[in-house]
Amino acid sequence: MIRIIWDGHYLDGKTAEKKPASIELTSDSLKIRVPGGGYRVWPYREIRQVHGFYGGEPVRLERGDAAPEILIIDDPEILSSLHEFSPEAAGRFHNPAFRPLRRRMTIYAAIGIVCAGLGIYFWGIPLMAELAAPLVPMEWEKRLGRSTLSVLAPEEMQCTDPKLDEAVRRITEILAAREPQSYPFRVYVVKSPMINALALPGGNIIIFSGLLEKTGSPEELAGVIAHEIQHITKRHALKRIIKDSSTGLMISAVTGDVTGAMVYGAKIAHMLAQLRYSRQDEEEADREGMHMLISAGIDPNGMIGFFETMQEQETMPGILQYVATHPDTGRRILQLKQLASAAEKAGGEYRSLPGKHDWDRLRKSCAGEMTGPRVRPD
Fold first, then answer.
1. Nearest to residue 266, comparing CAs of 145, 146, 151, 372?
2. Are 43 and 84 members of one domain?
């Protein structure tokens, strides 16, 4: 028997409030009932699936562009019911029935590409990384992240100002609440003059104090964190690591060998320090990070302001390193302004972030203890 009524949570795209919702499947739409808010009807043709492509992952559906309405359903079986109940919906949503087949095909493809040798290397490895990344167990990814964190951000290099730590923690929690992924996001501020941030596999983020000093407000820092969160949830770094690493690491990742995650930690830390994302990855992190800010009720102009600072000061040595690893700054600013403008037209108020009234002190709180190594930025 097909289940047609499901429980979930609804966000209207204007505020950060997450409301319990009852979701009914119909032949051509979802009918959403929010307590005290009546019915909302989402035609299938207007819905896009953002999360819920992997086993055990909550399903996230969105409707609209700049400040989309959001549905989060914890039970991924709703996708199976959609495919059984509505033929019209079948082509718009992921079909869980294909997961076992996809896994087997991906493993066979990975083995074949590795054995094909140098002739296939130039096109096969990037494809294999795309196919293999979804198969990597999250626990393996988290272990790899912890291993690299111990190299790049040992305790003696971490900033310890309690007020800064509290502000960063709260900003991260506000953003993470908008992300149904099961990553335990945590941001570490590391004492170093480097102007950069690193997204590690598994949910850890490193902000170097040199970058923190360049932020003019907690909203600008929130923009940086939202951008890095997207690199993690989209598994951009993991795909590049798989692409650029040895066959041994790839096999360890796909099979979930936890000892491999520890063994390769130092090597991956060096790789992450030099990592340069593709323009496509950077633009996706910008776009989805901007949506995250808007959805969380955080002023998106903070992200724009930070990029503008980087562009204005790009001739400075530290900024030049950042711009070199984050190209097309002007183009990205233009795209972000278009998204922010659309959100402002949709209305909605922005929240005040922790540390706002003491930010000038907080952003400089690690300046006197910059002892971190000057690894190359990502």
1. 151
2. yes
